[in-house]
Amino acid sequence: MAQSEGTDYIHMKIQQIVDNIDNGSLDVPSFQRCYIWKKDRITKLIDSLYRGYPVGVITTWTQGQGRSDMVVDGQQRTSSIYACFKDAAPATYGPEDPKPQTGLHFHIVKEKFDFPSFRTRKQDPMWVKVSDLFGAPSNPTTRAWRTTL
């Protein structure tokens, strides 16, 4: 397949995607369609990323000099990634917009992603919040585990 003039293919790490949303160089517009992904789809996406499976491309449109790139395909994936790693919806989501689910956890022994209940997390401290793994951990188990990485 021929590449269109002006089309660039860039491989980005998850942290780059999250950072680009935070610094405003990547815009995730909520106007494309409402956020509709359920917990199982989010879990499967993040598990696929963790295991190195392909998850498709995110297509962006460069709006021009000094303006952010806009996600035109992959809004659900991009919003889900951001919500899991930052435990919040991207800032472009308005107060009335349906938001991505936050609170994804990872079991550091079973290597499993899920949205466990509070009770489950209390009974098994090996469940750690994904956002804690990549930010400042609030959980002592997470802090201890990260020192082994």
Shape estimate: globular
Count of alpha and pi helical runs: 6
Structural class by secondary-structure content: alpha+beta
Note the run of SSEs as H and E: HEHEEHEEHEHH
Q: If strands are numbered along the chain, what order do they take across the biggest sheet?
A: 1-3-2
Strand content range? 5-15%
**Count of extended strands:** 6
Q: Span from first to last CA?
A: 41 Å
Q: Which regions are unreliable across 5 or more consecutive residues at pLDDT < 50?
A: none
Q: Report helical residue fraction.
A: 25-40%
Report Rg. 17 Å
Major sheet details: 3 strands, mixed
Describe this structure in words.
With 149 residues, the chain is α+β, with helices and mostly antiparallel strands. Helix content is 35%, strand content 13%. The protein has 6 helices and 6 strands; from the N terminus they run αβαββαββαβαα. A 3-stranded mixed sheet has the order 1-3-2. The protein has a 3-stranded antiparallel sheet with strand order 5-4-6. A hairpin with a 4-residue loop joins β4 and β5. α1 (14-22) packs across α3. The chain is globular, with a radius of gyration of 17 Å. It starts with 13 loop residues before the first helix and ends with a helix.
